[in-house]
Amino acid sequence: MTDALQEIHDFLPCRTPEKWIENALANQDLLLIDHAHCEKKAASTALSLMYRYVDNSDLLNKMSRLAREELRHFEQVLAIMNKRGVSYGHLTPARYAAGLRQAVRAEDPGRLVDVLIVGAIIEARSCERFAALAPFLDDKLADFYNSLLKSEARHYQDYLKLAVQANGGPVDERVGEFLAIEKGLIEAPDSEFRFHSGPVG
Ligand SMILES: [Fe+2]
Ligand SMILES: [Fe+2]
Q1: Which end of the chain has fewer CB atoms surrounding its CB within 10 Å, N or C?
Q2: pTM of the model
């Protein structure tokens, strides 16, 4: 295992349940469609931070680069879907991101710190899920997921650094509060399978 992945495992409050891996393998088309949505959403979140915090040059640079990478991932997922005859379409939103965002403070600078922490957690979980799934996938998808997990590990670090910077000091306590919420969202039974859902069925 790479050091980056080890760091992600140490950071997250739990591993992906085995039941979710079974769900994913039984719903590979849906996995790809929702994955495409996640990449697009990741780019859009980075862009909205760039609109809101125009005076933070470190944030502007990191988010601009991140948005480009996420859109590139989006295009790569679409290409795989095209090859496999899976068509892109709307999906109902997962409970995961909304569940994390409901704890975000309303006023800045707390709001920015929290949004960045949520970003770090989502990137870390994505990385952990790509790694957990890869051994069970066909070679093509496994190679793709193994390549993605490296950039998501880097995005996790970027978000966390920006959060510490925005907070003007350590964010461990706040991170712990969000991770407690995250653990519930990952482990509690979910009604619909999604890339970041809990186990279904
Ligand atoms: Fe991505
Ligand atoms: Fe990412």
Answers
A1: N
A2: 0.97
